[in-house]
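Exercise: predict the fold of this chain.
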Amino acid sequence: SADCGPGATAGSGGAAFDLTLGQSLTCTFTNTGAPQVKLRVQPASAQVALGSVVALAIEVDTLGRPVEGVEADVRFDQALLEIVNADGVAADQVVVGNCRLPRLLANNADNAHGSAYVARAVSAAGPQPITGVCTLAVLTFRAKGLSNGTAVGLVLPGSKAAAAGQPLRLETTGGTVQVLSKGLTFINPPAL
């Protein structure tokens, strides 16, 4: 009989997996217990003028636990923001941060769908798993649409961390960006 593995239960309402021809299993994953790793957007909130850029880091905090791999799945509103390179041109990758995870498994930015995905891991030759706080990646956004005074959310829905081939409980904290007009607009200009 098939098993969903640690942190998951078999039943309806979860993710369905085809095991062999004619056999399937539905697993519901739960993230119970204290987080073993934290992944967050830094700064947690930012303001940027329309047409300008803002850089946000995806920060890993291992909470003192050795970590061998981290995946960050970032989602954003593509009508208001786009990922750009150092020249301000729309980019299909993000800047890799200072985490000592030399194997770059994935680095994709998809401005059409409002997503970025970065996956990094230790290599067979080293170094050792990381501990502490480091930057997994830096995303530079250009504001291309006004957010009407509300903050645009950046979320990390499919992010993961692992050590010794096992998934770790991950706490993610997204961020917000507020896009402001380039200058002040007076409804009733002051008398000069």
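Check your answer against the key: The radius of gyration is 20 Å.
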